[in-house]
Amino acid sequence: MLEADLLVTDIGQLVTVRGADAPRTGGAMSELGIVESGAIAALGGRIVALGSESEVLDTVSAGPGTAELDAGGRVVTPGLVDPHTHAVFARTRENEFAMRVEGRSYEDIAEAGGGIRSSVRSVRQMSEDELFSRGAATLDRMMEFGTTTVEVKSGYGLSLEAELKMLRVIARLSELHALDVVPTFLGAHEFPDEYREDRDGYVSELTRRMIPAVARAKLARFCDVFCERGVFSVEQSRAVLLAAQEHGMASKLHADELSAFGGAELAAELSAVSADHLICASDEGLKAMADGGVVAVLLPGTTLSLGKREFARARFIIEAGGAIALATDCNPGSSMTESMQIIMALASMVMRMTPEEVLVAATINAASAVGMERSVGSLAVGKLCDLVLWEVDDYRAIPYHYGVNLAASVVKRGTVVSTRGHGA
Ligand code: NIG
Ligand code: FE
Asked: Which ligand is nearest to the CA of 119?
């Protein structure tokens, strides 16, 4: 008998999301692979057994070194994956939030020197150590809410030096924080002040100098672009993403957030791993993404925080056979939250995604949106033992009971990293 490091028993609903390590599309987004009266065991950070409690206890035993969790008949799911965040930043921007509440638009505030460029000024001034400790505090909060893998973008540096500084902070978080961190280079987040009058000049700085340097330093797995009216055109976005692909970075896009701009179409053309936002994406663009296997990362918290009422068309994407993932977009400008739980609730309430679809979108599909589907995003033997023990006895309560933290215990690589006392 195998002696486990971690053994979780008496699980009322063990939501495995089992199946292929690939994004779930269309109707398959409703399949959760639930085991009732389940148990799960880990050794060396990986799952060694899961299934009905009697099956698991036939192969695994608890010894003096085993951490045992009694789920008390409640729900266990895979750890949540947050596939789109700007979690490393220097200062919050509640002043801009207040302006938006009074009616100013995000674009207006950006034009007036606020927005991303204000975050750039503060990041350039802040030390690497200070950025690291702020980033770590943000990741701690994400973890308390059930996130066990997170993508973090650069993009508040916008010069070679400051972007490398951000990426080094992200690499340090990846090394030192319990969460798994996936790094994305977002040098094409905005045009820095020094290139406002020479936009193509910044694009060639990105393609000729910054992307090769980031690749040499091995600091990013993905390259992302803010492809939008007033920011990077489709042609400029294509140039940046192709240069990054040549240097081994797969593509992601901020696409069609504020206008129908051709970002979804470009994502399909370039076989991007994901295109994100998509509020204004065209029917053709969304269908091309579904056909090309590009994951649609939807960020309903951003829409609400920007004071808008028009959301990405989740039902259209699912009916077109596409795959949806959900993310916080955690950033000081347009979505100041660390909680995937509130995003899951919003996805149900405002985009009419079912509780099953929401869970798939926050686990295996989110993992697929950051290239991590083989190690996380579902519960199966051999995968990392990342899971959440929820304070509910029916998984449908996860998007239903909103605005509170329902994660009783969070397990990362077989170790309990967050507990809320009255949970397990
Ligand atoms: O995803 N759209 C661009 N980037 C972020 C906003 C970043 C900021 O305002 O600081 C987003 O919403
Ligand atoms: Fe973003």
From this structure: 1
